[in-house]
Amino acid sequence: MFNIRVMTLDDYDAVIDLMKRTPGVSLRDADSRESTAKYLARNPGMSFVVEVEAGLGGCVMCGHDGRRGYLQHLVVLPQFRRQGIAKALVERCLSSLERHGILKCHLDVFKTNALAADYWRSQGWQLRTDIDRYSFTRSGDENA
User: In the Cβ-directed half-sphere of 141, how many Cα atoms lie within 13 Å?
Assistant: First the structure.
């Protein structure tokens, strides 16, 4: 049995621990407590955690830019997978976005993360081949 609730900054340490224990998830300076606090404040009630018997078993962060939604860091620990947790987390995010009038959502998957790519394809998400994403880091710090 699991319980999904809104993520708060009090969950930060446990969420970072989940991410560190999950292959394919990259943590950057942008995942700092301060940056996470700003993200949660800018996108209230849109990121979620999953409570399981032993603590947190999963999480997802969700936000938008006013036009498009974005999912980041969907994580479910291996022992809790195949129970519908990831699907329920994503549905909460998409419903939250829809309440804000946002019907299209994007996410990024590292090309080396085949497990995640397989999951998203199995859920009906489409791999975009018509665009390339470019990034620029003003500070020059590639960990930002």
Answer: 6
CATH superfamily, with its number, for domain 3-122 = Gcn5-related N-acetyltransferase (GNAT) (3.40.630.30)
Task: Give 70's strand partners.
Answer: 63, 106
CB atoms within 10 A of CB 116: 19
Domain extent listing, the chain = 3-122
Confidence (pLDDT) at 140: 67
Asked if residue 53 lies in contact with residue 80, where contact means CB atoms within 8 angstroms, the answer is no
In sequence order, what DSSP letters do the residues of 7-21 get, joined into one string? --GGGHHHHHHHHHT
Residues 6+ apart with CB under 8 A from 23: 113, 115
pLDDT digits (tens, 9 = 90+) for 22-47: 888 889 888 999 999 999 999 999 99
Q: Where are the alpha helices (DSSP H) in the chain?
A: 12-20, 33-42, 85-99, 114-122
**Non-local CB neighbours of 91 within 8 Å, separated by 6+ positions:** none
Specify whether the CB–CB gap between 27 and 20 falls below 8 A: yes
* Nearest C-alpha neighbor of 125 from the set 141, 142, 137, 107: 107
